[in-house]
Queue: 4 jobs
Job 1
Amino acid sequence: MTVTELAFFVGASGPVTAEGTEVINQAIEVQTEWSTRNAPSMPQGRENRGVSFLQQIEDPSVYLLTAHWASVEEHNLCIAAPENRETLSKIPPYFQVDKIVYFHLKDVAINSTSGKNGEISILQSPIISVGRLTIAAEKRQAFEQAWNEVKGILEEFVKPNVVKNGWRLEKENETTEEFVLVAGWPNLEKYRDFAQAKDFERYQSVLASFAQTRDLKCYRRIL
């Protein structure tokens, strides 16, 4: 099993400066070097590890860091490493530490495609949408069945970009689950046009009928 880290950051006073972005860049480099030393069987290098740093379009003070790990335990070992902790100590002037939220998804490779000719991976997409849906725990199976019936609507619309989805591994409570939906887009216009697409209402009705809360935002990659 591999897991994908999603870590959300909020700027200390709006969008971060180039210096703040460089601190994240240094942290990424430290973690990449740690992975090379301690997890040699895993894909190496930023692109192969699904590493990216994204800036939200709706609120440019919000950022998203992604990376692939062999397991949650491996990621936690990296976090605890002295060299990583030293780098992370440089974050507070640029980001609100108390608002950092991170979790993992199982087997959601955002740096890969199905192998079909011409497909564009999520991390190579100019625009990346991230949807977070809260689903009642007892409705997870029913939602998965309904989602499988309508996900093709979105997948067909975004081609040659791709769609990935998965469940948050770390539960906030026992009564709800979080479903995360990530898609690549060529531009914001295409993203906005989806609301006018054929069968969009059927797609939307499934999400609306199950989701207790929904949060959908767009990002651009900056690292």
Job 2
Amino acid sequence: MALVDQQGAASPKRRDNRGTKKPIDNDATDPLKIHVSGYPPYARIDDLKEAFSDYKVKHIKPMKNFAIITMADAKSSQDAIANSDKICVYGEFLTVRLFSEQDLLRNKRVFVKSKEKNVIIDPSKIELSGDFLQQLDQVLAAVRLTKEEVTKISKLYQDLQTVLSGIWPGCHAYPFGSITTGLGIKTSDADCFVELPAQFQHASMNHVNKAKRLLQQYPKIFTEIYSIPNAHTPIVKFFYTPTETNCDVSFKTLLGVRNSKLIAFLLHADPRLIPIAVLVKYWAKVHGFSGSGRLTNYALTMLLIFYLQQKQFGKFFVIMIKGWFFVLMRPFLKAKKGEAPAADPAPDASIEDPADLTNGLLEHGELNSSALDSASPAATAATAATAATAATAATAAP
């Protein structure tokens, strides 16, 4: 019995020890690991193995600008460090020193301002009251960029064009993306395409790296700058300090600008469209459906637009862009052999009852906050578009 009591008394203590994490010492060093730098970028692991063949090398881990070599014993590490600037790879002398965890932090790109800007507001922190329209306004007020904020961001494009004109005279900065279409929210990045004069347009020229080096000369305006030159569409990213805005700049194609003009044209055809498009965009962001490596906001918006263009929604959607409706929907309206061609939707067709389309977003005349907050993505993914249509129709109600 005494043994059982001792074990029972000791168990909580053991659990507490397991649950307590030791703080990471960034200055900690390992006597078996060395930090090796100075070798050319084309050097391979086999080259490093050969260079350290006189030492007992256990493992080599290449990093971005250096390598971590683990030795079999502390003496090998000390001997290698003693020969720093004497060991050679392809004519380059290597710098060898004891490795510390701080080296990994320095090697890792950490952009605090950009990361903070991308934090979306938690739905539970939005106070909802009143009927559906009032609650919709409250959500939009919390997440959407104001007209004044959008106006301030326009200075970003002016400053960018002015700076880049220093090396590319005559260049022009074209804004595009959600901020220009009216779908900008607090976490939205500014997107910009820079069109260069013909004499500067060379396929082999790496414009993003050149732009990066130029922007780095203005640290009070442009910070947290880095380039992605090997992407399908190379970009340079930065944080614009005056308005605290993240920005992506590309030089490849004007297609993004044209796509944004199309989106703006479609969404501004009726004042009910932008509010519900922003709501769906926020919903997707909260549940992780959109973002890097996921569904793009452009694709999400086009899915919403296409859904609203379907035949059953009648007059409003036909009038909105009748020509586009014809182009998109005509393949589905082909008549069977021997039958007369299907007619275009009647212009006086009525929109379905929103109450039949809500599926949880609109509940008893009020916005159901669980659809934005606690609902699981799996349960709500299939109803996003129908919920969006319901809210659009509901905003038209007196």
Job 3
Amino acid sequence: MPENTQNTNTQIDPAQDPSSPYYVHPSDSQYKLVNNQFNGSGYNDWKRSVIIGLSAKNKLGFIDGTITKPSSTSPLLKAWTRCNSTLIAWFTQILDVTIARSVLYFETAQEICLQQQIADLDQESDSVSSFYTKLKMIWDDLDAHNPLPICTCNNCTCDVTRKVLKMQEDQRLTLFLMKLREEFKQARGTILMQHPLASLSHAYRLLMQEERHKEVYVVVHNNDEPMAFNASNTKKRFYDQASESDKYGSSYNRSNIGDRSNTGDRYLPPRVSYQGNQGRRPFCNHL
């Protein structure tokens, strides 16, 4: 009789496989990703420490997007939910109390990391377009992992989807404006004073125009400075030459022109000395 053979191809439950990212060790509930809590400063160092800690626990895929949430019918959903909850617990332990409260109701650990990237992001030396692109990339990741709910009612009249989208856009517009450099303070105030608030795309176009105006002003201003400097130097040289001319001309008149004293405007030749006669040089007065 043929011997009964045991099926060796039985699939191991990923949650029970220590090599699987879905595996959670009983001691992981006490695990700390980093020693210091993040309080809003030193984000890059904190982020690097978190990446190392997650990689050591084989959980980096839950953060970088390589492991996505399974469908509601997937047998991995339960294991994924357990790992995701574990990661959220890890993050709340290494965040300052104020920051931890602001991310406590996020549904995924990846959202927490993305929100921390936004919190640390500022325009600094970036152009408006470059800074907006950085924010937009993070927002797109958030939307992909946590899309907004959509009303599926037949003949819906509540318009809830549009209202939720508008609320989200207003929040993102305010965040975008508040992270711009101080030179955009006036434009920021003008946009925020509008009621209702402008769309994010419209505000972006206004800021791009403002940035171009500032660039043109700087170019024109920088070109005007050397022109004004050269004009000032030219004017100074003109007056210097005029002063020199006046100085030498006055000296010449005093020493060389004839005596105008007591003669009105009549010109008298200069006094000269020559042999046998002193006085004025003779001249012919015949017509």
Job 4
Amino acid sequence: MQVLQPARALVTVEYGGFLYGAEYETSNYGVSDFSSVSNQPIACAVCEVAGAATLMIPATTNCPAGWMTEYQGYLMANYYSHRKGEYVCVDKNPESASIGNSNTNQARWYPTETYCGSLPCPPYTQDRELSCVVCSPSLNVSGTVYTRWGRTSCPNDTELVYSGRAASTHTSESGSGANNLCLYGNPTYLQHNDNQQQGARIYGIQYYTNGYGLRSFYSLHQHRAPCSVCLKSTAETNLMIPGRNDCPTDWTVEYKGYLMANYYNHHKINWVCVDENPESLGYSPSGQGRWYPTETECGRMKCQNGIKGAYYQDWELSCALCSPSTSRRSSVFTHWGSNSCPNGTRTVYSGFMGGSYYSYSGSGANLLCMQAQAVYGEHETQSQSGALLYGYEYRTRGYGLRNSEFQNVHNRQRT
């Protein structure tokens, strides 16, 4: 058997990105069954299941009709005042990994508590640890699953799996999870403690739109945002395209809308595509979790005001959720750092990497592959300073990758 030799490692510290192993931080955080693994390295397993994409449903222990339970667990993320992590569903019978040291206090997972205000209580309960369930389709279910943000229903020719409430972290808290979740509307729980434990927290999302460029959204300012999880049985994959409100050739628009995230100098949550005809689940003065429209910021992103198809400074960015027009077995991935796709695959579109400004605490946490040309919907031409999106560039000299390919693209725009 051929033994692969390890690549030559650099022994100098370059201070680029750092990666750490994660551990459970669960003692005295509301779930007593997790006390035995507190400070232990977290185990994980990557699983393959036949059928449509699996689905994690937060705030319930039950799968919808036609779906099978893979496992139940607890929603966990980083500590609310630390740095952003990701909300994940951790098995209710946790195991520790058999590698690494314990209690290093580098990366940590905490149970997630509900906070009322933007989330109505009831049906949710203040300070209660949220459960979750991971579901897979039964044998007679196939297709692709996506979330329609801002709506309680799904488009025609799709099936509503469930509807719920958009939720994420507090606009002014630096920790917990950056991803947006569609919380189940009628929560069910596993073990919990209703006293405040102050681990990870989750809040309802509200539209913050008055004075932020989308006049058709003004009346929904500080209203709670809904969401719906949809199954399309005639497609195997889906794709959110930022910066345009149409889909590539051979792809169908499921819904279109506007790119939204948190305020640029608050704290990051993921960019999502919010339906252009949003609905409300009622007004709340709390202002805990927020969505702001996203504006184009020029510089690394090339703008040519007055040129059709170009990006325009300060215009609110549109988006579209797309699925293949013809029934075909396929999946989609992003080839970061390249203008083309590998041999044997088909290019859906190419463009450049977009994200939040490196020194701003807010806007979006996730990276986006922006198309080379934009298509705008409703917009204002002056700066509203909600969420802001910038083009990205490589920073590679002096950061460990000595091969000439990365040295030559230092300070150039990322594709």
